[in-house]
Amino acid sequence: MAPSLDSDSTVLSIRSDFREGRFLRQSKSDPNRDDIRSSSMNDYTVSDFQHRYPKARLNPLAAQCHDISNGWIVSFGIDKELDPSVWQSCMAAKFCELMGYIYDDIEPKDFLWLCKFTTCLFAFDSKLDDGEWADRIDWSSDVILDMNLVLLWNDPDNERLLKGLKFILDTLMEIEASRKRAQLHTIHADLVHARNKFKSLLDVNLGAFMSGFRELWLEYIEDLPAECITRQAEAYQQYITGCLSEQELLGNHHKNTLVYIVFQEHNCQSYTQAGELVLELLHDRIAEMELAYERLRSAAAPVFHPAIDLYMKTCRDWIPGTHEFHITSSRYGLSNSSISDTGKSKKVEHIIKRQ
């Protein structure tokens, strides 16, 4: 259970066994590491995640925006980038419902943008899960080049963005097949050349995924201040970094990534124990969020309270919204028998393949 916010606890005092380090990180030289791994069970259960927020409601525009978003994806040829079975599973997963469960009272135009973005992002993620990232490093490097060309187009010498790009490329440099393509000076030179050659970013020839991303990006940043654009561009770079880290750690063999990472990195006796720690960690982070909100609101002038409250509403809506999508979407392999009449997930048994 997460600590009560009525207590005198502070953010730093909200601790679980996991966060206090009682489950110590394992090194590759740990003599007990193999014994722990071999004794863990392939089958494990994760208890319900019970949150404090109202059950998410689905935006009534979700179904309509699902059809529009899929048509938009097809217009760029993104569906042809995926194996037919993967594309069919993407359509069945109804990614727009993720946004629908989070944003049930948003402007229709903004909601449609979010649905397009989510559909594009999940389609890209599905391509990575299908093994393309590891098997086609040339395609992966092209995607990274295309995305960073889009992100740095208006400010090619931005030090923060170039630093983020360098970290990504340094990671790719560890893969021999990508070394010739993944060099900062080469990609930056290509970017500058493209800016000098073309009148507009819209004139640049990009791949299917990044053509869709470009349209969404240009619409998103149209009225944003420069600093906000830079921060959002950094967020997308961090997403690519996360993709690289996940591929390196998991080798694309595990879907339950957070449980698997905790099991791998900490001295857990089983996947079940790792799952319990993950749930505890989630409750701790939610408690931290609520406490931070209370402190920020009490310290801010009343004129800022409406903006703070609106931002916090969105943060809170993400928790039941993403939870509802994950327990109902076909993407995560839960059958109807795994969902109770109230929409809450029952205890679900997950099968993990051993490496």
Describe this structure in words.
The protein has 355 residues and is an all-alpha fold. 60% of the residues lie in helices and 2% in strands. The chain is built from 15 helices and 2 strands. It has a two-stranded antiparallel sheet with strand order 1-2. α5 crosses α15 (305-328) and α13 crosses α14 (271-299). Residues 1-41, 252-256 and 334-355 have low confidence and may be disordered.
List the helices and strands and how they pair.
Layout: H1 17-20, H2 33-39, E1 43-46, H3 62-75, H4 84-93, H5 96-102, H6 108-129, H7 132-135, H8 137-152, H9 159-173, H10 184-197, H11 208-220, H12 226-250, H13 257-265, H14 271-299, H15 305-328, E2 348-351
In short:
The chain is an all-alpha fold and 355 residues long. Helices cover 60% and strands 2% of the residues. 25% of the residues are buried.
Structural class: mainly alpha
How much of the sequence lies in strands comes to under 5%
Q: List low-pLDDT spans.
A: 1-41, 252-256, 334-355
Cross-sheet strand order for the largest sheet: 1-2
* Helicity, as a percent range: 55-70%
Mean pLDDT: 76
Task: Please write the string of helix (H) and strand (E) elements.
Answer: HHEHHHHHHHHHHHHHE
What does the radius of gyration come to?
Answer: 22 Å
> N- to C-terminal separation?
33 Å
Helix count, DSSP H or I runs of 4 or more residues: 15
Number of strands: 2
What is the general shape? globular
